[in-house]
Specification:
- There is one protein chain.
- By secondary structure, the protein is α/β, with parallel strands linked by helices.
- The chain has one domain (3-315): TIM Barrel (Alpha-Beta Barrel).
- Helix content is 39%, strand content 17%.
- It has helices at residues 32-35, 44-57, 75-85, 108-120, 144-160, 175-184, 203-212, 229-241, 269-276, 283-294, 299-302, 308-315, and strands at 3-6, 9-12, 19-27, 62-65, 88-90, 92-94, 132-136, 164-167, 192-194, 215-218, 248-250, 255-258, 262-263, 266-267.
- It has a six-stranded parallel beta sheet with strand order 6-7-8-9-10-11, sandwiched between helices. A four-stranded parallel beta sheet has the order 5-4-3-12, covered by helices on one side.
- Helix 2 (44-57) packs across helix 3 and helix 4 (108-120) crosses helix 5 (144-160).
- The longest helix is centred in the middle third of the chain and has 17 residues, at 144-160.
- The protein is globular.
- The two termini are 13 Å apart.
- It binds zinc ion.
- Zinc ion is lined by residues 22, 24, 66, 253.
Length: 316
């Protein structure tokens, strides 16, 4: 039986169940949970356990945690909360957008070795292994550092067979540049998911990515300014109608816990975030699926979303 690395060890692909393919249990910066946990607010572990318990009760079985080292990844926390709540969590290796000050001359070969170690041996001295490799580029396009990361991600993928997720700025069609580099490295686009694709409503671009073989991360819900929540669902419906159901990977890109910024007006970010998405990891089930139903998507298709796609993605 094929397996994927979860934070509690190998997980049978058949046991992935209902899977959210791009979330963040904690979003911070490297080292915050170990050194400055008070920045995450009081009882942050309790809040995580509460959020994941609710998600599990609501029928969510697995979460891909897209938090790299530079976004504050702490796999010990992930393993603890997975054990406590029964939710499977898949951790990632790779990197997000920016090069740390002293990293600019770290070579692709060095990074490739680190990513492979995190997949084959474990992360941060534990035996908790990464199940996915992340690379990122945003509106300015693929920077020199990001190209190094992307090539290291490609090489780690080719040596381990662990798939790739790409943070991408879809309104600027940045996926074209990212995919070209991965193809140069010999990566089959079918092992790649292009994340934040539902920040774009450009059917021609999204269809092009699918035709290359990519999976699409329709993973910002309710999302921010680039597209309204209902526009995101309309483009999802259009892609379902075009026959791509099993390659659309849904998620929220929602942080259960992030750094609290205290300002003269009080503590701001959590309130703002909850105002935007009061349902957290349940938004798709509570808001998006009923909308799709109203638009005429049959239950036979709805039951494939978040189940068949993730299984195929990790299984190929
Ligand atoms: Zn994210």
């Amino acid at each position: 039986m094929p397996t994927v690395n979860s934070v509690l060890g190998p997980l049978d692909i058949e046991d992935l169940g209902f899977t959210l393919m791009h979330e963040h249990i904690i979003t911070a910066s490297a080292g915050v949970t170990q050194n400055y946990p008070e920045l995450l607010g009081a009882n942050f572990m309790d809040r995580i356990v509460h959020g994941l318990t609710n998600a599990k009760k609501g029928g969510i079985d697995t979460i891909v945690d897209a938090t790299t080292l530079d976004l504050g990844r702490d796999v010990t926390v992930l393993a603890n909360v997975s054990r406590q709540t029964g939710i499977n969590i898949i951790a990632c290796t790779g990197w997000w957008c920016e090069a740390p000050f002293f990293f600019t001359n770290v070579s692709c070969e060095q990074l490739t070795k680190l990513f492979i170690r995190e997949i084959m041996k474990g992360i941060a001295g534990t035996d908790i292994k990464a199940g996915i490799i992340k690379a990122a580029s945003d509106a300015p396009g693929v920077t020199e550092w990001q190209e190094t990361i992307l090539r290291a991600a490609a090489r780690a993928h080719l040596q381990t067979d662990v798939p790739i997720m790409l943070h991408s700025y879809s309104p600027g069609r940045i996926g074209e540049q990212q995919l070209a580099i991965l193809k140069e490295e010999g990566v089959d686009p079918q092992r790649v998911k292009m994340d934040h694709s539902n920040d774009s409503t450009d059917m021609e671009y999204l269809t092009w990515l699918l035709e290359q073989g990519c999976y699409l991360g329709m993973d910002r819900y309710p999302g921010r300014g680039d597209a309204s929540p209902i526009d995101r669902t309309k483009i999802l419906k259009a892609l379902i109608d075009a026959g791509y159901t099993d390659r659309l990977l849904l998620s929220h890109d929602y942080p259960l816990v992030q750094i609290i910024e205290e300002s003269p007006a009080g503590t701001r970010p959590r309130k703002e975030r909850e105002g935007l998405n009061p349902h957290g990891y349940m938004y798709i089930k509570k808001i998006v699926f009923p909308s799709l139903q109203e638009m005429g998507v049959p239950d036979s298709i709805l039951s494939r979303l978040c189940t068949v796609g993730p299984r195929n993605f990790f299984n190929s």
